[in-house]
Design goal:
With 505 residues, this protein is of the alpha/beta class. It folds into four domains: 111 residues, Beta-Lactamase (2-Layer Sandwich), CATH 3.30.450; 170 residues, Rossmann fold, CATH 3.40.50.300; 92 residues, Helicase, Ruva Protein, domain 3; 44 residues, Arc Repressor Mutant, subunit A, CATH 1.10.10. The protein is 47% helix and 14% strand. It has 22 helices and 14 strands. Strands 2-1-5-4-3 form a five-stranded antiparallel sheet. Strands 7-8-11-6-12 form a five-stranded parallel sheet. Helix 16 packs parallel to helix 18 and helix 20 crosses helix 21. It is elongated, with a radius of gyration of 31 Å. The model has no long low-confidence stretch (mean pLDDT 86). Bound molecules: adenosine-5'-diphosphate and magnesium ion. Magnesium ion (MG) binds next to helix 9. This is Transcriptional regulator with PAS, ATPase and Fis domain. Keywords: ATP-binding, Nucleotide-binding, Transcription, Transcription regulation. Pfam families: AAA_lid_14, HTH_8, PAS_9, Sigma54_activat. One of its GO terms (molecular function) is ATP binding.
Length: 505
């Protein structure tokens, strides 16, 4: 360390002088490293804005500093917490502020006079775009927020259901969706609804396959509601959400006094609770091997064995299952039992990803917006055309669940009724998604959808049958239902045509 010399700049000698110097240094430090600062007086009026802060003004809706200065802070900075700092005199050292200009990490510090009374406050934007600078923290926050939203929604719908059930005078477990709840009229949506409707007429197990958020659970409810078991209970188990060690008891129940700690009365399993109705096994691809064996046995025998009992109990339950995993690949890798796979794969229903039915996006957005409005008691949001085009162009890896989250956030954050593209881009970026190019005309994408090659990645027999059905329907329509002309045009015998019309598969 160099020796201190007489000409080294000296600290002030008195304590007051040191404090003043420190305060000044800190002020300049904050002023230069932060993204922006401003001051309000005791009444909450903006009295000063530094250079850095001025670049937020356009996003806050101001084109000049003059319009901003002298206004009340909450009038010009939506959702700000400055007022509270003025009122309590307590600083907020760190907070996340979200408004139409984005999400910011901010500090709010009261200013006091010599006597210690609050005379104003200083607002500091420590980081803008925390989604990039504080990525891990923010994604954790976004995740928690999403979980919270999901939990709130679930709670609200349970409340609604119990109100409906109470009004109907029964405490039964009912399904909450019907086919009418499945929004979409694109070819892909129409086809999946047709398959699901057909499945509802059957008594065999149904296997719903598709990415997460595509509507598998919704369809399971709808299949139950349209089936002959609609009067019975609809019970679902999310296999991925129950610890492996508890699954067996959850499925098959526990006999009275089966083991130390088990309740003396025993406990009913989901098979028992679903008696006379439908049991929905969600995320079946996550089922541990030991339970796969037991489930297979139960399905083969039509009987279950509650934990700790050695009696077999017959059950009367229709099984629906769903998975977002590639179950066939899991079978090949030896992670899912082949025999169980074939037992469940009787009526597979492939639910298309949202990106394969982009033309449904406007209708979905409208319906999701209406749902939100109903829940919040507000008028439905108006999605401006640039925003709709942006929504139509996204890849939607999380499908309709992701679309709903984005709309929900946009509604929460926008001050007026309308949602524009800039807002949505910010929300997507904050969730770590780089926005894809907008698609102006969703009716044009219907053509592209028809050419989406993933449509062809399923059994050929199914595709041929679908094509035959469409060709017959088109020819019948063109010939006003005249079967002879239809058969002639399609180059098939009348007997073949009759056969197809009676038994379309
Ligand atoms: N076709 C659709 N129309 C309207 N809402 C849908 C549709 N498909 C899915 N949703 C909604 O999207 C969310 C995710 O659907 P869900 O059935 O849970 O998907 P999955 O089980 O495939 O993960 C739910 O809130 C559901 O109501
Ligand atoms: Mg699901």
């Amino acid at each position: 360390m160099p020796p201190l010399t007489d000409d080294a700049p000296a600290l002030p000698l008195d304590a007051q002088g040191i404090l003043e110097l420190a305060a000044r240094s800190m002020f300049y430090l904050f002023s230069s490293v932060s993204q922006g600062m401003f001051l309000v007086d005791l009444s909450g009026r903006i009295v000063w804005v530094n250079e850095g802060y001025q670049r937020f003004l356009p996003d806050l809706g101001f084109s000049s500093l003059d319009q901003f200065l002298g206004r009340m802070v909450e009038e010009v900075i939506p959702n700000t917490g400055m007022r509270r700092v003025l009122e309590t005199g307590n600083p907020v050292l760190i907070d996340l502020l979200t408004n139409k200009a984005g999400t910011f990490v901010v500090s709010r510090i009261p200013l006091r006079d010599d006597g210690g009374s609050v005379i104003g406050a200083i607002g500091i934007v420590l980081f803008d775009h925390p989604e990039t600078t504080l990525q891990p923290l923010i994604s954790k926050f976004a995740l928690l927020q999403r979980d919270l939203d999901d939990a709130r929604r679930e709670l609200a719908s349970q409340r609604r259901r119990s109100l409906v059930a109470a009004a109907a005078g029964d405490g039964e477990r009912r399904s909450k969706y019907t086919f009418a709840s499945f929004i979409g009229s694109s070819p892909a949506a129409a086809e999946v609804k047709r398959q699901a409707r057909r499945a509802a007429q059957s008594t065999s197990p149904v296997l719903l396959l598709g990415e997460t958020g595509t509507g598998k659970e919704l369809l399971a409810h709808a299949i139950h509601a349209a089936s002959s078991r609609a009067g019975g209970p609809f019970v679902s188990v999310n296999i991925a959400a129950v610890p492996d060690t508890l699954l067996e008891a959850e499925f098959f129940g526990v006999a009275p006094g089966a083991y130390t700690g088990a309740s003396a009365k025993g406990r009913d399993g989901k098979f028992k609770l679903a008696d006379g109705g439908t049991l929905f096994l969600d995320e079946i691809g996550d089922m541990p091997q030991s339970l796969q064996a037991k489930l297979l046995r139960a399905l083969q025998e039509g009987e279950i064995e509650p934990l700790g009992s050695n009696k077999l109990v017959p059950f009367n339950v229709r099984i629906l299952a769903a998975t977002s995993r590639d179950l066939a690949a899991q079978v090949r890798e030896g992670r899912f039992r082949e025999d169980l796979f074939y037992r469940l794969h009787v009526l597979p229903v492939r639910v298309p990803p949202l990106r394969a039915r982009r033309s449904d996006i406007p209708a979905l957005v409208e319906s999701l917006g209406d749902d939100l409005a109903l829940r919040n008691g507000t008028p439905p949001p108006e999605v401006l055309s640039d925003a709709m085009a942006l929504l139509a162009g996204q890849p939607w890896r999380g499908n309709i669940r992701e679309l709903r989250n984005v709309i929900e956030q946009a509604v929460m954050r926008s001050e007026g009724q309308s949602i524009d593209a800039a807002q949505l881009e910010r929300i997507l970026r904050e969730a770590g998604v780089e926005p894809a190019a907008p698609v102006q005309d969703t009716s044009a994408v219907v053509v592209a959808e028809a050419e989406d090659e993933s449509r062809y990645l399923r059994p050929l027999a199914e595709q041929v049958a679908e094509l035959e059905r469409r060709a017959i329907a088109a020819a019948m329509k063109a010939h006003g239902g005249n079967k002879l002309a239809t058969a002639r045009q399609l180059g098939i015998s009348r007997a073949t045509l009759y056969g197809r019309l009676e038994n379309p598969e």
